[in-house]
Amino acid sequence: MLILAIESSCDETSVAVVRDGREVLSNVVASQIEIHKLYGGVVPEIASRAHTEALSGCTSEALEKAEVTLDDIDAIAVTNCPGLIGALLTGLSFAKGLAYSAKKPLIPVHHIRGHVAANYLAFPELKPPFNALVVSGGHTSILGVDSYTDYRTIGYTRDDAAGEALDKAARVLGMPYPGGAAMDKMALEGDKTKIKFSVSHVDGAPYDFSFSGLKTSVINHVHTLEMKNIELSDDVKKDIAASFMSALVKTVTTRIEVLLENEKRPLVLAGGVAASKNLRMGLEEICKKYGVELYLPPLKYCGDNAAMIGAQAYYEYQNGNVADLDLNAFATAAADKLPK
């Protein structure tokens, strides 16, 4: 089954052609980083406009690279939740028009399920059941994946997502947007024991996360140094980055350790922050300790892309999840309960 998939939930316009949920024939991504870098973050209205300008060209390129035509496509898949509502509606409207004109089924896909499904593209042997750790700029959660379309929320962030805290910490250290990757790299060169940033715990909820305190701690630490006229030299920044990343990773791995003590399922990592070398090393250590198999997605599938949407769409279609043309977009939606 050939699926043409469209992803436009934030600031990446992407179109892909995926066969049977496992084989990527093409995956075109048009990044908006240079546009939003001017503002230090994603501007929703500008993102929506950029999607409008890029979607048609990305679709043509994806079909050409896959060496297929629209007639060869069996279904159109699109991210309809969660994300920036304007950006979602742009991609959804385009997908609806394409599905209607080409007389193809329309498959709605949850963005977070797509991130998990990115692993199906790299690991042919991977099948549910397993647990998934999703870590990105807008989401941090632990999900029980009981089947390809049956999800349970085990834990979630009560405030900021890990990626959001990471980007804001990078910004206070003077790194240009998006600063998460640079922060992660710098952390490898610093002393992670230099500063004692706190690792949060949520009373009565051992699997839930909280990153707002960590984010505030690093901001306050930098402001304190400035008030004391202590220069933010490269060495100082490296130690702050290393200490911050150590606390962030420990916040995640302490939850995973509790989970593995109670349920030794394979663990799948997903989301933009899945590209973090520090996080990968921390999870590898924990999973090795408990003898649990760990799946780490290739870096090219960590960020937002349409290939992962096409992967999940195949299983959604097999489960009968096909939408009418009145399908709507939703800014928020839990992965275990799809909106109607």
CATH class of the largest domain: Alpha Beta
Under CATH, the topology of the largest domain can be stated as Nucleotidyltransferase, domain 5
Q: Specify Rg, calculated over alpha carbons.
A: 20 Å
Helix fraction by DSSP (H/I, runs of at least 4):
40-55%
Low-confidence segments, given as residue ranges, are: none
Order the strands across the largest sheet as they lie in space.
3-2-1-4-5
Instruction: Examine the secondary-structure arrangement and name the CATH architecture of the largest domain.
Output: 2-Layer Sandwich
Residue-averaged pLDDT = 94
Number of helices: 10
Distance between the termini: 25 Å
Major sheet size, sense and barrel closure: 5 strands, mixed
> What structural class do the secondary elements suggest?
alpha/beta
Number of separate strands: 10
**Secondary-structure element series:** EEEHHEHEHEEEHHHHEHEH
* Shape category: globular
Question: What's the number of domains?
Answer: 2
Beta content: 15-25%
The named CATH superfamily of the largest domain: ATPase, nucleotide binding domain
Describe the protein's architecture and organization.
- By secondary structure, the chain is of the alpha/beta class.
- It has two domains: 2-116 and 301-318, ATPase, nucleotide binding domain (Nucleotidyltransferase, domain 5, 2-Layer Sandwich); 127-300, 2-Layer Sandwich (Nucleotidyltransferase, domain 5), CATH 3.30.420.
- It is built from ten helices and ten strands.
- The chain has helices spanning 33-37, 44-66, 85-102, 111-122, 162-172, 180-187, 212-227, 234-262, 277-290, 306-318; strands at residues 2-7, 12-19, 23-31, 75-81, 106-110, 130-135, 140-147, 150-156, 267-270, 294-295.
- A five-stranded mixed beta sheet has the order 3-2-1-4-5, sandwiched between helices. It has a five-stranded mixed beta sheet with strand order 8-7-6-9-10.
- Strand 6 (130-135) and strand 7 form a beta hairpin.
- Helix 4 crosses helix 10, helix 5 runs parallel beside helix 7 (212-227) and helix 6 (180-187) packs across helix 8 (234-262).
- The protein is globular, with a radius of gyration of 20 Å.
- The model has no long low-confidence stretch (mean pLDDT 94).
